[in-house]
Amino acid sequence: MGYHWKSCPSSIRVFIFNLQKEITEIINGDFVGFYLHGSLAMGGFNPNSSDIDALVVTNNSMTVEVKRKLAKFILNCSNSPFPVEISFLNKEQLKSWQHPYPFDFHYSEFWRKRYEDDLLRGTYKFINEDINTDTDLAAHITVTNHRGICVEGDPIDEVFPSVPRSDYTSSILGDFQDCLENIEAEPIYCSLNLIRVFWYLKKGVISSKQEAGNWGLETLPQEFRITIRKVVDCYSNEKGCTNKFEKDELLLLKNYISDNVQKLLC
Predict the structure, then answer these.
(1) 38 dihedral zone (left: phi>0; alpha: psi -120 to 50; beta)
(2) Where is the Polymerase nucleotidyl transferase domain (predicted)?
(3) N or C: which end of the chain has fewer CB within 10 A?
């Protein structure tokens, strides 16, 4: 079983509180709130494989100087020991919904090398005054609205806008397509994410990957149960995954879900 924010070990809570405290100091009085979404908010956090997924809201748009301070800090704390994926939004952006959604600053491990290079070389290629957009924010904000945790700050229902179902669906289908292509390379993440999207389109349930895996075990045809059981066991095992996956079993699961999702979308 994975951890939930309310019952997770103290080491995880200390990491989150320190992250929130340092960020609050860096943005220097402009803080509105710090919010968890993803596995820790929904009860499927695995300390060995899960990200800390968070949104931070500020009163005003960030200066480049603040963005660079944030990048330096998060580079030091992400993966020590938990990887961080975090987006910063301001209240002006949150007044009205659009898709894809704008943000002030974003960090994930995918961006590590780019930020390290910018800071090391004194360049502004990635950490600059540009306001970018992210299709994933439709999913992140939807999950925050339905399952999120306010660690500190204004209540969720007073901060975040409602996201149209069509935009949430568009957001999760982008990741769904990536998972169809990459299931052999990343069988755990991709299998669970495919099931999660299928469950949402079929029943309207916003779930964690662990919850989706458990639903798949109970609901999908018997021929897929062994594969899904291996996936779920790997995802929840803090000691790591020793299960091996055959190409054929992954393709069977992928094709079954893909065919059913296409029918639901028609």
Answers:
(1) left
(2) 33-97
(3) C
What is the phi/psi pair of residue 151, to 5°?
-75, -40
- With left for phi above 0 and alpha for psi between -120 and 50, is residue 181 left, alpha or beta? alpha
Q: Measuring CA to CA, which residue among 122, 128, 84 is closest to residue 105?
A: 128
Torsional sign, CA 28, 30, 33, 34:
negative
Report the C-alpha dihedral over residues 47, 170, 232, 81, rounded to 10 degrees.
-10
- The residue with tokens 């405290």 is 21
Peptide bond into 100 cis (omega under 30): yes
What does the block give as tokens for 145? 């609205």
| pLDDT tens track, the chain, 266 positions | 689 999 999 999 999 999 999 999 999 989 999 999 999 999 989 998 899 999 999 999 999 999 999 999 999 999 999 999 999 999 999 998 999 999 999 999 999 999 999 999 999 999 999 989 999 999 999 999 999 999 999 999 999 999 999 999 999 999 999 999 999 999 999 999 999 999 999 999 999 999 999 999 999 999 999 999 999 999 888 666 767 899 999 999 999 999 999 999 98
Q: What is the 3-state secondary structure (H, E, C) of 68-114?
A: HHHHHHHHHHCCCCCCEEEEEEECCHHHCCCCCEEECEEECHHHHHH
Closest CA to 53 of 44, 62, 64: 44
Residue in the block written with tokens 């879900």: 257
